[in-house]
Structures are given as C-alpha cells and as structure tokens.
Predict the 3D structure of the following.
Amino acid sequence: MLKFIKKTTKKIGQSPGTITHVGEKKVERVTLQVIDYDLSRFEEKEVQTVEDCFPLKESSSISWINVNGLNEVHIIEKLGTHFEVHPLVLEDIAHTGQRPKLEDFENYVFVVLRMLSFCEKSQELKSEQVSFILGNNFVISFQETEGDVFNSVRERIRKAKGRIRKMGADYLLYALIDAVVDAYFIILEKIGEKIEVLEERLMNNPSQDILQKIHSMRGETIFLRKSVWPLREVITNLEKGEPDLVSEKTSIYFRDVHDHTVQIIETIETCRDLVAGLHDLYLTAISNRMNEVMKVLTIIATIFIPLTFIAGIYGMNFKYMPELEWKWSYPLVWGIIILVGGAMIAYFKKKKWL
Amino acid sequence: MLKFIKKTTKKIGQSPGTITHVGEKKVERVTLQVIDYDLSRFEEKEVQTVEDCFPLKESSSISWINVNGLNEVHIIEKLGTHFEVHPLVLEDIAHTGQRPKLEDFENYVFVVLRMLSFCEKSQELKSEQVSFILGNNFVISFQETEGDVFNSVRERIRKAKGRIRKMGADYLLYALIDAVVDAYFIILEKIGEKIEVLEERLMNNPSQDILQKIHSMRGETIFLRKSVWPLREVITNLEKGEPDLVSEKTSIYFRDVHDHTVQIIETIETCRDLVAGLHDLYLTAISNRMNEVMKVLTIIATIFIPLTFIAGIYGMNFKYMPELEWKWSYPLVWGIIILVGGAMIAYFKKKKWL
Amino acid sequence: MLKFIKKTTKKIGQSPGTITHVGEKKVERVTLQVIDYDLSRFEEKEVQTVEDCFPLKESSSISWINVNGLNEVHIIEKLGTHFEVHPLVLEDIAHTGQRPKLEDFENYVFVVLRMLSFCEKSQELKSEQVSFILGNNFVISFQETEGDVFNSVRERIRKAKGRIRKMGADYLLYALIDAVVDAYFIILEKIGEKIEVLEERLMNNPSQDILQKIHSMRGETIFLRKSVWPLREVITNLEKGEPDLVSEKTSIYFRDVHDHTVQIIETIETCRDLVAGLHDLYLTAISNRMNEVMKVLTIIATIFIPLTFIAGIYGMNFKYMPELEWKWSYPLVWGIIILVGGAMIAYFKKKKWL
Amino acid sequence: MLKFIKKTTKKIGQSPGTITHVGEKKVERVTLQVIDYDLSRFEEKEVQTVEDCFPLKESSSISWINVNGLNEVHIIEKLGTHFEVHPLVLEDIAHTGQRPKLEDFENYVFVVLRMLSFCEKSQELKSEQVSFILGNNFVISFQETEGDVFNSVRERIRKAKGRIRKMGADYLLYALIDAVVDAYFIILEKIGEKIEVLEERLMNNPSQDILQKIHSMRGETIFLRKSVWPLREVITNLEKGEPDLVSEKTSIYFRDVHDHTVQIIETIETCRDLVAGLHDLYLTAISNRMNEVMKVLTIIATIFIPLTFIAGIYGMNFKYMPELEWKWSYPLVWGIIILVGGAMIAYFKKKKWL
Amino acid sequence: MLKFIKKTTKKIGQSPGTITHVGEKKVERVTLQVIDYDLSRFEEKEVQTVEDCFPLKESSSISWINVNGLNEVHIIEKLGTHFEVHPLVLEDIAHTGQRPKLEDFENYVFVVLRMLSFCEKSQELKSEQVSFILGNNFVISFQETEGDVFNSVRERIRKAKGRIRKMGADYLLYALIDAVVDAYFIILEKIGEKIEVLEERLMNNPSQDILQKIHSMRGETIFLRKSVWPLREVITNLEKGEPDLVSEKTSIYFRDVHDHTVQIIETIETCRDLVAGLHDLYLTAISNRMNEVMKVLTIIATIFIPLTFIAGIYGMNFKYMPELEWKWSYPLVWGIIILVGGAMIAYFKKKKWL
C-alpha cells in the first residue's frame, strides 16, 4: 500500500527548478515521435535528436511531439528551453507523482494527468504520469513508457477520420486527453467485474483470503479516487475555455470529456460504496457462520449432557439402590433417555434452530 | 451489481461525433409517432419514414416527434441533421448510460433523463434513457422502448385538457419531464413497501436471505440516488428559465417539478437511512439470537456438569468409601442433586437469564 | 415507517393545476373562521359560505380567514379564484405532503409549513400541513384539522395584547408561523424525555423491545429533520424581508423565529447523535451481557470438567489398580478435587473473572 | 442528557417582546456593579437601584454595568428601556438557553455567549448565558450568577495595565469576550485530562462503568460543540469590524479571539475523534477479553473431554473386556492419557493459544 | 494524547500583547544567526546581542535573521520593537501552539507554521512552532530549537545555487517555507512505512499490542491533519500574491509549494483511510480467530460428548442388562463409537469446518 505515498526524499533540499527524474526508470532509451499535419498534408517520423524537433516551433502546421521516457532529463531540458517552458514546469514533468493539474502560462498551457492501466499478469492497477504542453500550433506529450493509448488518435490523424485534421492544436490536446480519460472506463469495468466475482464468492464461501482481497480493493478505490478527483478540476477549466489557447469551438468537446469525468467519479463513489458493502457482508457472513457453529455445539451438548448425567446416576456404586435390582429398570432408563432427547429436539425445532 | 457500471468499451477509440448505439437492443423496429397541434387543431399519426417529419420543422403549429428505439442510428442521424443538432448530441442520444444533463445550444435545448420503472416479474428496477430536443416549435423525444409513461400527456393533448393546447413547445417539454418525474414516486412507493415488508420479517425471523435482500435494496438506493441527483441540476436550470427557449410563464411550472425532485431526493435519502437502519437491526437481531443460543447452552451445561461430577464421585470403585455402605446415601445424593440444580435455576432466574 | 413516503399515485397523470385533495380526510365538514380587526375594532365570526369572505379582500382592516379541513376542494378553489391565487398554489394547498416552502408572487406570498403534534394515546408524532396566503391586508390559513395551536394568537388579537393590533397582515403571518414553530419545542421536549427514559432503562436492563424503541426513535428524528430543514430556508427568506409584502419592521420579528428554527435544527441534530449513541450503548450492553454469560459457563465448565475426569479415572474397572485398595485413597481423591477446584477459583479471581 | 434540550414550554403562547425569566433561579437578589473609567480617572461601586446607572448613558467616560442574576426582570426592563434596547433583545437576555449570536442595531450591538465552567464537585460541565450590550461609551453585561471570570479584566482596569484604559468601550467588550473564550481552554484541558485518564484505565481494565463514562464524555463534547460553533460566527463578524461601533483598531484584537475560537473548535473536533476512538478501543478490549475467556474454556474442555471419554470406556461393566484383566492396563491408560493431553497442549502452543 | 491539547492556562487573564513564553524550554540560551547577501556579496555571522541586528533593517541587501529558542522573551521584544512589529504578533511568536496562519500588516507579513520531525529514538512525532516576519529586505525566522531543516537553504545562499541570490526577501521566505513543507514528506514516508509494517504483522499475528499501535497511529494522523489543513490556507494566500510584499514573480514559486501542500493533505487523508482500514482489519482478524477457536471447541466437544454418553450407558450397574453378558458387546461398542465419531468428522468435513 506504501506505493500510494510516493518517495520524494531524493529531491528534498534541491534548489527549485532543478530538473531531476524522480520515479522508476521504465524505458532504456528515451524516444521521440513526431507527427506533423495540416488539412492536406501528413508526416510521421521518429526523430533521433531533440534538435530535430526545433523547427516545428515555427512551422504553420500542427505538430505533435511525443516523448517516451523521462529518465534522460537533458532531453526534457533542451526541448523545454527551446519551447520557452518555465523551469518549474520541466521539473514537474520529470518528477513523477504529481497530482493532475492545469497551469495556464502566457503562451502555453501545461497539463498533467495520471494514466491508469490494469496489468493482467499481477492483477494490479498501474499508474503513469502523462504531461502535455499545448502551444499555439504544437502539443508536446511526455509519457513514462511507450503506451498504446494514443494509437487511436494516431490512426485518426493518419486516416483523416473525423474533425481532427480540420482543427487546431487544442483539438489535438482534447483528443489525447479524451484517450486518457476513456482508458479509465476499462479500469472501472475491471473493478466492476472483480467486485461481482467477490460478491458471488462471498455468498458461497466467505474465506479468509476474500477479506484480504476486499481490503486491497478498498485501497484501489482510494487510489483511483485520488487520481480522478483533481482531474475534474482540470477538465472544468478546459471546458470553460479559460486558457486563451483553447478556442470556444473546442471547448464544446471538452464538455463531453467533462461529462465522462463526472460519470467516472460517480462510478468510483459507487464502487467505494459497493466495496464497503462487501466488507459489511463479509462481517455478517462470518458472524452468521459463527452462529451456525455455536448452534451445532449447543444442540449436541444440551442433548447429551443431561443424558450422560442420567447414565452417571446409575453408574454409582451405592449398596442400597433399589432401581438397580428391578427387572425393567434398564429398558426404562432407555425410555427416559429417548424421551428427554426427543423433547430437546422438539424444543430446538420449535425454536427453529434445527 | 455490475449493471451500474455501464459497458462502454465498444465506443473507446472512436472519433467523437460518431453515432453508435451503445446499450441493449430493446425494440425490433424503430417507430416514429408524430403529434401536431395548436389551439384549434390536432393531428396524430405514425409516420413511416424520417423524411415525413421534415416539414414539421417549418410549420407554425407545435409538433411532438416521439422516437421509440435507438438501435437504427441512421434514423437519429437523419433527423438530427435536418433539425440541425450537433453531432456530439446525437452521439449522446444513441449512447445510453448518459447521466441526466441539460445542454443549451443556440436554437435548441438538449435534455437527457433516466426513466425508471419497476418490473413486477423480476422485482427489479429497470432504467431507460430518455432524451429531448426542444426547438422553437417542436419537441423530439427519444425512448429506448415504447412506454406508457407519456400516455397521460397524449390524452391531455387529445382532449385539450388543462393549458397544454394553449401553450408552446416549452410547456410540452414540461409536461413530458413532469410525467417522467412523477413515475419516480411510484418507484419510491414500491421501495417503501419493500422496506416495510423487510422490517416486519426482520422482527419475526431474521434469516440469511433477508440479509441478501437488504444488500440488494442498498444497491437499489445507491442506483436511484445516482439517477436523481443530477436531475435536480437539470430542473433547476429549467426552473430559472436559463435557456431562452423556456418562457417565464412556463418556468413557474418547472418550479413545481423542482419541488417534486427535491422531495424525491429527500425521500431517497430517507430510504438510504432506513435501509442502513435495517442492516443495523439485522446485525443486532443476529447477535441477540446468538445470545439466546448461548444462554440455553450455558444453562444446561452449568446445571448438569456439576451434577454429573457428583454422580461420578460415587461411581468410583474405591474399596474404602463409607458412604457407599450407608442405607440413606442414595436418596441423600438425589437430595443434593435436586438442591444444587434448584440453586442454579434460582441463580439464573435472579440474573434474568430464564 | 412507510408513512414517510407519502402516497401520491392518485394524482399522477393529472393535468397540472387540477385541485385534488390528496391525504386523509380528517374533518367531516370544512369550516371557515374569520377574524377582522384594526387598531380600534375587532370582529370574530364563523362564516357559512365562502362568498361571505369575499368582501374582506377590499376592506381596509386586517382580515384572517382560517380554513379548517381540505377535503372540500371547491371551497379552496372559489376562495383562491376570488383572491387571485395561481392554480398551482391551490393544488399545493389541497395536496398534503408538500415540503415546507415559500413562493413569492406579485401580490401575495404563499407559505407551506408542517405542523407537528404528539399524540399522547399512540405515543406517536403526527404531522399536518398548514398553508398561508399573505395578501396586502389579509392572511388566509389552511389547516387539515381544527387545532388549538393558533388559540394564543386569537387571544392576543381579542385582548389587543402586545403589538398585534397595531401592525399589519405581515405581523399576523409572523404570529401564526411563530405559533407553529413554538409547537416544535414541545415535540423536542417529548423526544428528550423519551431518550432519557430509554437511556435509564438501557442501563438497567437492555431488553429486546428497547431495540425496537430505539429503532423507531431513529425514524422519528429522521422524519423531524426532514420537516424542519426546509423550514429554515423559508424563515431565512422572510427574515431578509425578501417578499415585498413583509415590511422591514416585521422582518426583525422573523429574525427571532429564525433563531428558534436554528435552535430546533441543532437540537434535532443533537437528538440524532444521542439516539445513535443509544444504539451503540445497546450493542455494547448486549455484548457485555454475552460476556457475562460466557464467563459463568467458562467458570463452571473449567472447574468441573477436570474434576469429573478425576472421578472418571477411579470409576474404571481394571483388576489391577493399586489405589483402589488403599485405605486413604478416597479422602485423598477428595483432597485433590478440593485442591484443583480451589486453584481454578484462585486463577479466575486473579484474572478478575469472578 | 435531557438538560441539553432546554425547557421553554413556559414561554410558548406569549406575545413576543414579553420579558420573562426562563431558566434556573441562580441568585437570591440581582446585584449591579458599575465601573466607570477614562484614561485618568477610575471609579468602582455597587449600585442599589437601577436608576443610579441612568446618568452613565450620557457621561463621556467609559462605563461598564455588570448585572448579576436575571430573575428580577423588572431591572432588565428598566435598564433596557432607558438605554433604548429593543424589547426582543431584552426578552433574549432574560430567556436563557439562547444560542450565541450577534445582533447589530443602529446605536448598539447585542452579543450573547455561553460561559462554560467545570464543577469540580459533580465533575460536570456547567453552562451559563452571558449577554452584552455595547453602546457608544458603555458596555452592559448580564450574567446568571456572580462569576470570577471577569476579575482579570477588573484588575486590568483598576491597575491600568495594558491598553484597556486608553481605548474605548469596544475594547472593553473585547476584553470581556476574550475572558469568556479563554475560560474554554480550561474546560478543554479538563476534558483532555479526563480522556487521558480513561484511556489509561481502559488499557488496564475495561470495566462496565468506563463505558458509561465514555458515553457521558460523548454527550459533553456534543454539548461543547453546540456551544462553540455559533460563537465562531459571532467573533468573525466582530473581527471584520462589521458593527460600526467596533473600531478598526479594536478589530485587530478580535482577530486574536477569532484565532482562539478556531483553535478551540479544532480541539473539540479532536476530542470528539479521540472519544470515538476510546469507544472503539473499549469495544475491541471487550471482544479481546471475550476471546481470552473463550480460549481458556476451549483449552480446558478440549483437553479433558477426550480424557474423560477414555476413563468412561474402562468404566463399562461388560463381562468380556480383555483389557480389564491385564496387569499393565492401568499404567498403560495413564500413559495414553498423558500422551493425548500432551499432544493437545503442544497443538495449542503451536497455534499460539497458550 | 493530551499533548494535542496545549496547556495555555499560564496565559489566561493576562493583558493582550503581553509577551510570555508558553511551551517547553528547549534550548539553554537563545542564539541569533545572521546571513546578509545580495547578488555579489555574502556574509554569515553569529551575533552576540540583539542590537547587532538593528542596522540590517536599513541595509539595501537581503538579511535573514534566524532566532533559535523562544525562552528569552526580552530578545523577541527588543527585535520586534525595532522592526516595528505589533505586540500581538510578538505574543504569538513566543506563545507556541499557534495554528498556522498568515497575517498581512502594512509593512510586513507574519507567518506561523508547524515544523514536524520524527524522533527515531522514541518513534514519535515532534512538533515545533516556526514563525517568520517578512519585511521589505529582511526575513526574521523564529525556531524553538536549532534544527537542520534550513541547512539546504543556507547552502544555496552560500554557493549562490539557483535563483536565490538574484531574488528578493520574498523568495527567501519561499525557500524557507518550502524547506519546512518538504520535511512533511519525510514524515509521511515514515508513517507510510509504519502502516506497511503494521499491515504485514496484522496479517501474520494480530496481537493485542498492534491494537495499541493502530490507536496511536490514528492519533498521529489526527494530529498531522490538524497541523496541515490551516497551512493550505496560508500558502493559498501567498500563492495568490495577496500580501504586497510578495511579488508576482515569486508567487509562481508559491504555487509549487501549494501543489505540495495539497498533495500532503491528500496523502494524510489516504493515511487516515488506511489506518481506519487497519482497525477494521484488526477487528475482523480477531473475530476470525475467535471463530477458529470456537470451531476446535465445537469439533472436540461434539465428537466426544456423545461417545462419553455411550460409555456412560454401559457403566451403569443394573442387574438386568443383557448386553453386559454378551461375548461381542465390547468390540461392538467400539464399533459404534468409531462409526459415530467417523460420521461426525465426515459431517464437519462436508461443512468445511475441518
């Protein structure tokens, strides 16, 4: 659970604006992908050095520079300096573990988001930081690893599907953010499925390891919530078209993303309620089971303890015990035993314990 | 419970504004019903093709086009294009699972609601998406299936009952939304009855399956709440007459709907409290029952264990045990047994365990 | 508990503005009482027909028309039409179960409140709807039954006590609302007493029926809260003198009512906390009692089970058991039994279980 | 706990502005103390009749009239009438049980506070209403009993310590309110000590009476909270210098009181959390203890029940039981008994139950 | 836990503006360190008397006066008087236990923070008050003890690292506050580690002392929360550049601190949730363990109680018991015993209790 509390000790005491990569090193080498397009033209390439991207700043077409990997900070620094980005912003890009935020500068907008993915192998949530710099005619995106979440956007640019080639860099930013937000729905479905599976298993056999699973589900929803709540604020700002770089025409599209975010938040809250409900259900199942165990003990003990007492009586060795001599005592005792036992069982039946 | 988390994976990666039907296919063929009326005239017909509705856009009378079924998206698309509706809106209409919202465009207003119904057969809540496009002189409504909730409105138009024929399209929208909101009261009554039944059964016999029912009631109230909360915001906007298309005269009527919505929300919150109370009651009933079981065990065991010990003593085979030879030992032992047993019972009576 | 969810099915599907009485029929015949007064003059009468009230609309003195009973809607309708009240308002008056609200129209103010009373016989809260129409020089009040809550106001008008005869219709409205709000304090005291009684009984003997009482107390506080929360908003509006018909001079008096309302709300919240505390106390008392039962079982069982074992050993029939032949074995065994038993008791004393 | 719900039935039905003392009669005779001072002069006296205070209204020096006791309402009335105080305000002064509030009139400010003290004898919180009327050059304070909380202020005036003699009546009000608020800290310390004592006792021996203490602590924090929350609002208004009678120079001092109030509120919230934590701890301690009891029972019972069975076997009286005749059977059975018993103990040791 | 409720009784009754040291005496002698710098020059010295600092007020370079220790109030008083600080501010500086706040005066800004450190030896959180006075060209900082948290700032000034030497006193304040806030992350990591350790131990062996640890962790998070929440408000004010002394250029840096504060608050909330989760887990683990104990008892008792009864039957001494004479009775009884015991075990296996 500790992973929720990001280690940042490494940075403490450094002068602000010092760009240091804080976080796991997830890729071997940082790569840069460039897509440059306008309504009529389209070009896609993997560039070798940062300097190759520099001319894009002045070009009239829309450029999308995608940086995969944050561990070579000098690349971020060079790129940032050329595109006139504030050192504190570059610091935030390299320092993973930022909470989602939007910062509006004079000639660019800085957006940080958390991208979530579900690792099928470890059945765990994975979280990655994605940052965007939106300029007048370019978007720079920074990812920790090369992901496939932006592939649909690439595809739409390539095939000129929908409006993407007709609109500006702000629409590109919208498309990218929309792709990140859409990925949350997949996570929510996974969690929904896990809750359903747990619920079913709980009804059948509430074992110890389910408790552990519920506990970790709880941690996951807390984590998700922490990632998505600030996202809402970011999108609200974009929807209202607060940054000058986001045109009114595009802000309608952000309204759509906003609706999705609100829906995601509500679903997470529902999940939290459901997980809390599961925990209550588990506790009740446990105490029901305990009840059942106790009932069996009570029934067996309360039936046989009095009977054993009766047997004990006639096991006494007194010289003068008239019953011992009688011919029909033994069957009589058996009769009493069956009677007493039967009466007990009838009582329990009446009490609905049997 | 998974149904609360709508599957939307189908859509992910598509270009925004692509109209795809997401949701169950609930009707075989999409049908269109048209009612066209003004103060003096009234006409009702089922049209065959979308194109038949097109002239209504320009007519001076009030027109209500009701679309039953969302699975033939080309109908929605044609209709939407003719009535100049934004592609993102058409996408929302076809994509069920939207949260209630109001979007105000220049020449039309878009409203999405959730219509709830209670299926008597499966004893389950059913939820359906209803969308409205309010234009200057028309209302287009989209339902997933043909329902009977709008029948009372149709009846009022036919018989010119109340104000409906005297007022504009905004009043028609009010009448339709009012019909949807009124249906919530029926749901609430059903839930109220279910709570009452559960409460009574709980007092008599807290069985395992009641727990499951309480658990699913809880899920239902969470679901209801999620459906109604955003509704409030929608109605508030209409009540304030924010969209230009809603006249001040009509906004007084929306104030009435607003009151209903607030009442519904409060009743849902009360239901939530009551269901939570039921769960607590269940737990307490369980632990009370456990207590009772334990008491029986304790009483039987504590009475007979000492008595069995006494019998055990005189079952020993020592050669030199003077009591064994005495003439009155056996009745004496019986006396002791009765005394000890009686004392125990008196003690329990005093403790109020019996 | 179902009563909290008002049945309204009767109304659904009706055209808005249709006046239908929804609620219990509480009086046989609707009666109208009129009090007409100014600084110097005072007249009180019971009128036979609605038409008798009509002249009061134009009179220069202050008139108070009190309508007892809502089941003859034609009376409400006639009165409302003459005094130019909006049909939706009349609908609300007849349709009991409204939440408290204030609606400000051009030439009159409409206020709905809930009047609570405590039925000594059934020991239950009763709730009634009271509506007021404040005009320029008149107040019309609508009650479900003839109550005695307004008697003190009548008395003050009759005897010209305090300011009431010197001030306008708005002050009369204040006096009436104040009377309704004051009645809440009596309810709160009743509830306070019930809580105190429950608390005392809980400490002495936490029986099953107390649980039921706590549960129904909980329902009552939920219900009270639902009635009073919207009241606050109503009074705030009056206090701020928002409606034009409430003069600044009178709004100071509404500030006083506002203070009372806030005090009532805080007391209800305190009651909720106390009732929740009672439930916790009950649970703890139950588990304490369980504990005590378990301790008795444990002590008896753990003392006698080992002793019975010892007795059992010497009840064995082996041919070669040297101890059986010894002269002092029997007293020795008794010695061991007393020793073991005593050690056990000492152990429990040390553990503070005895 | 009922005391939290103030009895006010006495007042209901009275005309507003009627001054009636509601509350306990805490002093035999109402006394009036007057302190009159300016930078150079200082006079302190106990006056006999209200009329003696009347000249102070016009004097140019600062006057502080302290009224001890509220049961002689005619004194409040006379004083109030002379100083032109609104009848509703006088009603509030006499009617104890007001929630803290500030009312700003044209030529005076009315402040009501709750003064708390801790009664060492009954170990209970006591609450008293204190009201202040701040005029241009006077402060009138009303207390239920003669307290010592204002002594430090008197001392400062007498000895001309600090700024008090140099500043106006508003600063005097500040000094008095500050004295009242400072007294809360003493209460909080008492409560803190009580929590600490309870916590320690809980760790050592969670007995039944601790539960009762926790329960009453809970009531106390609820009560404290109710007293202090509205206080914050009062002080905020004074801090902002909203009433004209509070000069900007003095409002800086109220900022200090505001800080204290916020600190008190936070500490109360912390106390609430701690008390809630204590209750949880109690419950867990109880269930831990139960666990321990159960373990002892289980260990004793599970060890001896099988052994008793073995003894029982050889207590049977069958004619043909070969073991009975064997020479070493008896020691052998002892061997088996020791073996089985030892194995059980080993098992429990492994399970960490011993 | 009492330490959270600061003792302030010492101060009560004093005239406001009286500077008294309230809190532990943490250093023997108060020391003053002065750093004076501008872009080109840098001087660092430990001054002997307060008067040595006085010239710095007029110097054109940036001066940082750091006061270690608060117990010699005359030093604070002299310094404060020379730098024209309001007496109430000086009182707050000396009176530890203030909640974080910012007060903006005409020619200086006063900031109070809480500095937290984690004492490795006692494994406890320690809290210290730090105050700052920001003037036009100076910052005065007051610490309770000499700490090492400002060393990184000193280092940066000495080595002219980053922007610090190029910017004004407001940037120095930023650097100092940033250092304090950064230290919170270390605390959070410690707490995160402790939670992880507890969680692991809980899964393996939920012992009594873990409960105590969870309880004290809970207290720690409550305490942390209380320290950090008001901090947010302070930073927000600085970020918005509200005080005139904070330039717009520096307020961007405060935005960075603001992000950190929000992140810290969210992490604390997460910690609270996690600790609450731990408590629930503990309770469930306890009740699971109880369950297990009960199961063993039930199994042993229910198997052997009936068997003992069978043995008891044939221990009876009746004269006429035909079975006793039979040759194969004894083995037959053994057969029955094994059969009954086996059936029991099979039943438990089926119920999954074994």
Notes: Chain B has a mean pLDDT of 86. Chain B touches chain D through one residue (CB under 8 Å). The CA atoms of residues 191 and 350 of chain B lie 45 Å apart. The domain at 290-350 of chain B is CATH 1.20.58.340 (Methane Monooxygenase Hydroxylase; Chain G, domain 1).
